Amino acid sequence: MVRFENVGLRYGSGEEVLTDLSFAITRNSFQFLTGPSGAGKTTLMRLILMSLKPTRGLITLFDRDTSTIAKDEITAIRRRIGVVFQDFRLLDHLTTYENVALPLFVQGREERSYRAEVTELLKWVGLGEKISAFPPILSGGEKQRAAIARALIVRPELLLADEPTGNVDPSLAKRLLRLFVELHKSGTSIVIATHDLGLMDQFDSARRLVLGEGRLHVYD
Description:
Number of strands: 10
Helix content: 25-40%
Shape: globular
Radius of gyration: 17 Å
Largest sheet: 6 strands, mixed
Order of helices and strands: EEEHEEHEHHHEHEHEE
Strand order of the largest sheet: 6-7-8-3-9-10
Number of helices: 7
């Protein structure tokens, strides 16, 4: 699904911030991406998402060399990927329900075909009473849960989650992890970037991709 071969990244003429990254994310796999703050976890995810281009090396996504993908194809490919960003990226003029349903609306589906599905997912992540609320009045944890629900609603082939439990309490973090596990069981490949060792220990069968000093170490 994703393959990095000797990938390096530098900004301008500076030293490489990521060096010789070689690894693969297979279909229906689950992995945690971890490492110290500033190690490059978000940068690595941006490379997968094609919002950054590597300085050298080869990245393939869904069996396509990302360097040869035309700009007008990128949007269609990204629709196969669910993303949970640290800054949430909710639209303030849309309600919680509308934010979560937005990917389905963009796909051209009729609202009546997904209303119950969106409502049920919002209830599951603890936002059943916030369906009509707008993002500015939501707490950080509520925004995080809305962002997660929006990423999951399309049942993506690949999910990239950047610190998805960083703004929620341990009990809810455990519940959200169960949601990721269930999504994985349905066939989605999962990559969760996190500092939370306790969270990773709850699913110790997952691979760990550890970034440090610009290099990646894989522990199966």
